[in-house]
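Researcher: Sequence of HIG1 domain-containing protein follows. Predict its structure.
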Amino acid sequence: MSADNDASLSIYDETLGSKLAQKAKEAPFVPIGIAGFAAIVAYGLYKLRSRGDTKMSVHLIHTSVGAQGFVVGAMTVGILYSMYQEYWVKPKP
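Model: Prediction complete. Tokens:
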């Protein structure tokens, strides 16, 4: 029983940073997608002041479409990268 208890405690010893680093190694385009989403939203908020005659709703729709498009693009590139790693780079037995 103590061996099982020691193994379960080692899972909780990991810090949040090490878990995030491990997940980023497994799927490197997820943090890129999150960062791109945040950057596009920040840019949209910055440009909100100088939107001119454009309605607020149109500006917000354009910003959300841009942010969602970046995330979908990052996911697509991540899937293609994963497929490349799995099928072409993986050593054949």
